[in-house]
Design a protein that fits this description.
This protein is α/β, with parallel strands linked by helices. It is 35% helix and 24% strand. The strands form two sheets. Strands 3-2-1-4-5-6-12 form a seven-stranded parallel β-sheet, with helices on both faces. The protein starts with a strand and ends with a helix.
Protein backbone atom coordinates (compact mmCIF):
# COMPACT_ATOMS: atom_id res chain seq x y z
CA UNK A 1 0.00 0.00 0.00
CA UNK A 2 1.26 3.48 -0.84
CA UNK A 3 2.17 5.95 1.87
CA UNK A 4 -0.71 7.94 3.37
CA UNK A 5 -0.42 11.50 2.06
CA UNK A 6 -1.10 13.91 4.92
CA UNK A 7 -1.74 17.66 4.94
CA UNK A 8 -1.25 19.64 8.14
CA UNK A 9 -3.43 22.75 8.62
CA UNK A 10 -1.97 25.43 10.88
CA UNK A 11 1.49 24.06 10.15
CA UNK A 12 3.34 27.02 11.66
CA UNK A 13 1.64 26.81 15.05
CA UNK A 14 2.88 24.84 18.02
CA UNK A 15 0.70 21.84 17.33
CA UNK A 16 1.26 22.11 13.59
CA UNK A 17 5.05 22.03 13.95
CA UNK A 18 4.78 19.00 16.25
CA UNK A 19 2.59 17.23 13.70
CA UNK A 20 4.95 17.99 10.82
CA UNK A 21 7.83 16.39 12.69
CA UNK A 22 5.83 13.32 13.66
CA UNK A 23 4.40 12.77 10.17
CA UNK A 24 7.91 13.02 8.72
CA UNK A 25 9.07 10.30 11.11
CA UNK A 26 5.99 8.06 10.83
CA UNK A 27 6.36 4.90 8.74
CA UNK A 28 3.78 4.64 5.97
CA UNK A 29 3.09 8.39 5.92
CA UNK A 30 4.38 11.30 3.93
CA UNK A 31 3.74 15.03 4.35
CA UNK A 32 2.12 16.17 1.13
CA UNK A 33 1.09 19.64 2.20
CA UNK A 34 1.29 22.29 4.91
CA UNK A 35 -1.25 25.08 5.26
CA UNK A 36 -1.38 28.46 6.95
CA UNK A 37 -3.77 31.39 6.89
CA UNK A 38 -3.48 34.19 4.33
CA UNK A 39 -0.90 36.78 5.39
CA UNK A 40 1.06 34.41 7.62
CA UNK A 41 4.80 35.06 7.78
CA UNK A 42 5.28 31.30 7.32
CA UNK A 43 3.89 31.21 3.76
CA UNK A 44 6.52 29.97 1.34
CA UNK A 45 8.85 28.68 4.06
CA UNK A 46 9.71 25.00 4.27
CA UNK A 47 7.45 23.20 6.76
CA UNK A 48 10.27 20.97 7.95
CA UNK A 49 12.55 23.89 8.72
CA UNK A 50 9.75 25.56 10.70
CA UNK A 51 9.31 22.32 12.65
CA UNK A 52 13.04 22.00 13.30
CA UNK A 53 13.43 18.75 11.35
CA UNK A 54 15.29 20.11 8.35
CA UNK A 55 14.25 20.93 4.79
CA UNK A 56 11.67 18.42 3.52
CA UNK A 57 10.68 20.16 0.30
CA UNK A 58 7.15 21.04 1.42
CA UNK A 59 6.55 24.80 1.39
CA UNK A 60 3.80 26.25 3.57
CA UNK A 61 0.86 27.19 1.34
CA UNK A 62 -2.22 29.34 1.62
CA UNK A 63 -4.15 27.29 -0.96
CA UNK A 64 -6.12 24.56 0.86
CA UNK A 65 -7.97 23.38 -2.27
CA UNK A 66 -4.79 22.35 -4.07
CA UNK A 67 -3.46 20.75 -0.90
CA UNK A 68 -6.46 18.49 -0.27
CA UNK A 69 -6.70 17.45 -3.92
CA UNK A 70 -3.33 15.73 -3.55
CA UNK A 71 -3.87 14.20 -0.11
CA UNK A 72 -5.45 11.24 1.65
CA UNK A 73 -5.88 12.91 5.04
CA UNK A 74 -6.02 16.37 6.55
CA UNK A 75 -5.12 17.02 10.20
CA UNK A 76 -6.63 20.23 11.50
CA UNK A 77 -5.98 22.00 14.81
CA UNK A 78 -6.97 25.53 13.72
CA UNK A 79 -9.98 27.79 14.33
CA UNK A 80 -13.71 27.10 13.99
CA UNK A 81 -14.08 29.24 10.85
CA UNK A 82 -11.09 27.59 9.19
CA UNK A 83 -12.21 24.10 10.19
CA UNK A 84 -15.67 24.58 8.68
CA UNK A 85 -14.09 25.76 5.42
CA UNK A 86 -11.66 22.83 5.40
CA UNK A 87 -14.47 20.36 6.15
CA UNK A 88 -16.24 21.38 2.95
CA UNK A 89 -13.05 20.96 0.93
CA UNK A 90 -12.27 17.58 2.53
CA UNK A 91 -15.79 16.44 1.62
CA UNK A 92 -15.27 17.48 -2.00
CA UNK A 93 -11.97 15.60 -2.13
CA UNK A 94 -13.40 12.55 -0.23
CA UNK A 95 -10.46 12.44 2.18
CA UNK A 96 -10.16 11.86 5.92
CA UNK A 97 -10.49 15.03 8.02
CA UNK A 98 -9.09 14.78 11.54
CA UNK A 99 -10.38 17.69 13.63
CA UNK A 100 -8.80 18.72 16.92
CA UNK A 101 -10.18 22.27 16.76
CA UNK A 102 -12.16 23.37 19.82
CA UNK A 103 -14.66 26.17 20.38
CA UNK A 104 -16.97 24.91 17.61
CA UNK A 105 -20.57 26.14 17.77
CA UNK A 106 -23.65 24.02 17.18
CA UNK A 107 -23.90 25.61 13.72
CA UNK A 108 -20.28 24.69 12.99
CA UNK A 109 -20.88 21.09 14.03
CA UNK A 110 -23.99 20.90 11.83
CA UNK A 111 -21.85 21.92 8.84
CA UNK A 112 -19.23 19.31 9.77
CA UNK A 113 -22.02 16.71 10.03
CA UNK A 114 -23.04 17.62 6.48
CA UNK A 115 -19.44 17.23 5.27
CA UNK A 116 -19.24 13.83 6.98
CA UNK A 117 -21.82 12.49 4.53
CA UNK A 118 -19.02 12.49 1.96
CA UNK A 119 -15.82 12.27 4.02
CA UNK A 120 -14.43 10.41 6.99
CA UNK A 121 -14.43 12.96 9.80
CA UNK A 122 -12.74 12.14 13.11
CA UNK A 123 -13.45 14.91 15.62
CA UNK A 124 -12.52 15.02 19.29
CA UNK A 125 -12.03 17.62 21.98
CA UNK A 126 -8.91 15.65 22.90
CA UNK A 127 -6.97 13.10 20.89
CA UNK A 128 -5.08 11.44 23.74
CA UNK A 129 -5.65 7.85 24.83
CA UNK A 130 -5.68 8.86 28.50
CA UNK A 131 -8.39 11.49 28.17
CA UNK A 132 -10.61 9.16 26.13
CA UNK A 133 -10.22 6.51 28.82
CA UNK A 134 -11.06 9.19 31.39
CA UNK A 135 -14.23 10.10 29.49
CA UNK A 136 -15.31 6.46 29.53
CA UNK A 137 -14.73 6.33 33.29
CA UNK A 138 -16.62 9.59 33.84
CA UNK A 139 -19.62 8.24 31.96
CA UNK A 140 -19.58 5.02 34.02
CA UNK A 141 -19.21 6.81 37.35
CA UNK A 142 -21.93 9.33 36.50
CA UNK A 143 -24.28 6.47 35.58
CA UNK A 144 -23.50 4.67 38.83
CA UNK A 145 -23.78 7.52 41.32
CA UNK A 146 -27.08 9.18 42.12
CA UNK A 147 -28.06 12.86 41.72
CA UNK A 148 -26.93 13.55 45.28
CA UNK A 149 -23.39 13.59 43.85
CA UNK A 150 -22.64 16.98 42.32
CA UNK A 151 -20.39 16.95 39.24
CA UNK A 152 -17.79 19.64 38.61
CA UNK A 153 -15.28 19.76 35.73
CA UNK A 154 -12.19 21.86 36.49
CA UNK A 155 -9.68 22.58 33.71
CA UNK A 156 -6.39 24.49 33.57
CA UNK A 157 -4.60 25.62 30.41
CA UNK A 158 -1.86 28.00 29.30
CA UNK A 159 -2.50 31.72 29.22
CA UNK A 160 -2.75 31.85 25.40
CA UNK A 161 -5.76 29.54 25.09
CA UNK A 162 -8.66 31.46 23.58
CA UNK A 163 -11.72 29.30 24.37
CA UNK A 164 -13.32 28.25 27.66
CA UNK A 165 -14.38 25.77 28.79
CA UNK A 166 -11.83 23.74 26.89
CA UNK A 167 -12.93 21.20 24.31
CA UNK A 168 -11.71 18.47 26.63
CA UNK A 169 -13.74 19.83 29.54
CA UNK A 170 -16.88 19.88 27.39
CA UNK A 171 -16.11 16.37 26.20
CA UNK A 172 -15.91 15.21 29.82
CA UNK A 173 -19.08 17.11 30.64
CA UNK A 174 -20.86 15.39 27.74
CA UNK A 175 -19.65 12.04 29.06
CA UNK A 176 -21.08 12.84 32.50
CA UNK A 177 -24.37 13.99 30.97
CA UNK A 178 -24.68 10.79 28.94
CA UNK A 179 -24.03 8.78 32.07
CA UNK A 180 -26.83 10.66 33.80
CA UNK A 181 -29.12 10.40 30.79
CA UNK A 182 -29.53 14.18 30.42
CA UNK A 183 -28.62 16.88 27.89
CA UNK A 184 -25.54 18.89 28.84
CA UNK A 185 -26.99 22.03 27.22
CA UNK A 186 -29.82 22.12 29.77
CA UNK A 187 -27.91 20.76 32.77
CA UNK A 188 -24.71 22.79 32.94
CA UNK A 189 -23.36 25.77 34.84
CA UNK A 190 -20.56 27.57 32.98
CA UNK A 191 -19.62 30.29 35.45
CA UNK A 192 -20.38 31.76 38.85
CA UNK A 193 -20.09 35.33 40.02
CA UNK A 194 -21.77 37.27 42.78
CA UNK A 195 -24.73 36.05 44.80
CA UNK A 196 -25.54 32.91 42.84
CA UNK A 197 -27.69 31.09 45.35
CA UNK A 198 -27.38 27.41 46.13
CA UNK A 199 -26.06 25.01 43.56
CA UNK A 200 -28.84 23.56 41.39
CA UNK A 201 -29.09 19.82 41.87
CA UNK A 202 -28.25 17.83 38.75
CA UNK A 203 -26.19 20.54 37.03
CA UNK A 204 -22.72 19.79 35.72
CA UNK A 205 -20.45 22.67 36.65
CA UNK A 206 -17.40 23.99 34.82
CA UNK A 207 -14.46 26.05 36.07
CA UNK A 208 -11.74 27.30 33.72
CA UNK A 209 -8.29 28.37 34.93
CA UNK A 210 -5.71 30.06 32.69
CA UNK A 211 -2.05 30.83 33.29
CA UNK A 212 1.56 30.19 32.41
CA UNK A 213 2.45 27.36 30.06
CA UNK A 214 0.17 24.60 31.38
CA UNK A 215 -0.51 22.17 28.51
CA UNK A 216 -3.71 20.81 30.01
CA UNK A 217 -5.05 19.51 33.30
CA UNK A 218 -8.58 18.22 33.85
CA UNK A 219 -10.34 17.07 37.00
CA UNK A 220 -13.86 15.66 37.19
CA UNK A 221 -15.11 15.95 40.75
CA UNK A 222 -18.04 13.94 42.09
CA UNK A 223 -18.94 15.57 45.41
CA UNK A 224 -21.43 13.60 47.45
CA UNK A 225 -22.54 13.27 51.05
CA UNK A 226 -19.41 12.95 53.20
CA UNK A 227 -17.09 11.95 50.32
CA UNK A 228 -15.50 13.13 47.07
CA UNK A 229 -14.32 11.15 44.06
CA UNK A 230 -11.83 12.83 41.71
CA UNK A 231 -10.81 11.61 38.27
CA UNK A 232 -7.75 13.49 36.96
CA UNK A 233 -5.71 13.72 33.76
CA UNK A 234 -2.56 15.83 33.34
CA UNK A 235 -0.97 16.30 29.93
CA UNK A 236 2.82 16.68 30.13
CA UNK A 237 3.65 17.01 26.41
CA UNK A 238 1.42 18.24 23.60
CA UNK A 239 2.87 15.53 21.34
CA UNK A 240 0.41 13.08 22.91
CA UNK A 241 -2.42 14.93 21.12
CA UNK A 242 -0.44 14.87 17.87
CA UNK A 243 0.21 11.12 18.16
CA UNK A 244 -3.52 10.56 18.59
CA UNK A 245 -4.33 12.68 15.53
CA UNK A 246 -1.85 10.73 13.41
CA UNK A 247 -3.38 7.47 14.61
CA UNK A 248 -6.82 8.79 13.65
CA UNK A 249 -5.61 9.77 10.16
CA UNK A 250 -4.26 6.26 9.57
CA UNK A 251 -7.45 4.68 10.99
CA UNK A 252 -9.65 6.67 8.60
CA UNK A 253 -8.16 5.13 5.49
CA UNK A 254 -10.77 2.95 3.77
CA UNK A 255 -13.53 3.75 6.27
CA UNK A 256 -17.03 4.69 5.14
CA UNK A 257 -17.92 8.41 5.30
CA UNK A 258 -19.19 9.42 8.70
CA UNK A 259 -18.64 11.57 11.78
CA UNK A 260 -16.43 9.54 14.12
CA UNK A 261 -14.74 10.17 17.47
CA UNK A 262 -11.48 9.05 19.04
CA UNK A 263 -13.52 6.49 20.95
CA UNK A 264 -14.19 4.86 17.57
CA UNK A 265 -10.50 5.03 16.62
CA UNK A 266 -9.50 3.44 19.94
CA UNK A 267 -12.22 0.78 19.76
CA UNK A 268 -14.06 2.06 22.82
CA UNK A 269 -17.48 2.33 21.18
Amino acid sequence: MSDLRVVIAGAAGRMGRTLVGLVKAAPGMTLSGALERAGSDALGRDAGELAGVGNIGVPVSGDPLQAVLHADALIDFTTPASTVELAALAAQARITHVIGTTGLSAEDIAKIDAAARHAVVVRSGNMSLGVNLLAALVRKVAATLGPEYDIEVVETHHRMKIDAPSGTALMLGEAAAKGRGVELATHSQRGRDGITGARKSGDIGFASLRGGTVIGEHTVLFAGPSERIELIHKAEDRSLFAHGAIRAAAWGRGKKPGHYSMADVLGME
